[in-house]
TrEMBL record:
Name listed for the protein in its UniProt record: RNA polymerase subunit H/Rpb5 C-terminal domain-containing protein
Keywords: Transcription
GO biological process terms held by the UniProt record: transcription by RNA polymerase II; transcription elongation by RNA polymerase I; tRNA transcription by RNA polymerase III
InterPro entries for this protein: Arch_Rpo5/euc_Rpb5, RNA_pol_subH/Rpb5_C, RPB5-like_sf
The organism of origin for this protein: viral metagenome
Length: 213
């Protein structure tokens, strides 16, 4: 990909990223008004490090850190994630208080899903990887994609009771990280998502899925 194409993709996808994390409860105002020229300048930093964004949660309970990795990451992904989880490294991001979004210029294939899952299961680190070009347009707003909403954890018990279910495993599945909507919402195993589809007879049809590894 030519530099100007990547610059354009980064600039256009930035709104999607900010909208996505804002829906998760993070404050995005400080990063909303950068121009394409400023984005181009930041890209000239080593591996695009100046593009990093640190977005505080509105509740004051944590931070969403958006990282860009503009060179090939696939073969180095496991080491890269381990570095972010190592308290002895300057790149360390405490998994207890940070969500991490990593934006890459290469396709997000099975290797990425597997490593991110291992990272979560072993360290409880919430990292989500997106190919920049795939979020130039907001994937949650595609006309073929029904509305997805994360169900707050405090509502899980009441929801199970209302549906006469004994445990979450009785819900249909949505796959952690491999499913674009699960990744967009920041779902981790055990989370529930509400999906609202249009229905010719009832107006809308609501179903729920549970996020699984």
């Amino acid at each position: 990909m030519q530099d100007y194409e990547l610059t354009d993709a980064i600039y256009r996808s930035r709104k999607t990223v900010l909208d996505m994390v804002e829906k998760r409860g993070f404050t995005t105002t400080a990063y909303r008004n950068y121009s394409s020229r400023e984005i181009t300048y930041m890209m000239s930093s080593p591996n695009g490090d100046a593009l990093r964004m640190d977005l505080p949660h509105r509740s004051g309970t944590g931070t969403c850190v958006v990282l860009y990795y503009l060179t090939k990451l696939k073969q180095k992904l496991k080491t890269f994630l381990e570095t972010l989880n190592d308290p002895e490294k300057p790149e360390y991001l405490d998994p207890a208080t940070n969500e991490i979004i990593i934006l890459v210029a290469e396709p997000v294939v099975d290797t990425f899903h597997q490593n991110v899952l291992e990272n979560y299961l072993n360290k409880k680190s919430r990292a989500f990887i997106f190919q920049i070009q795939t979020i130039v347009n907001d994937p949650s707003k595609h006309f073929l994609v029904p509305k997805h909403e994360k169900v707050p954890a405090e509502e899980h018990a009441a929801l199970l009771e209302s549906l006469y279910l004994k445990h979450k495993a009785q819900f249909p599945l949505i796959r952690f990280h491999a499913d674009m909507q699960a990744r967009y919402l920041g779902l981790v195993p055990g989370d529930l998502v509400k999906i609202t589809r249009p229905s010719p007879s009832a107006g809308e049809y609501i179903l729920y899925r549970v996020c699984t590894p």
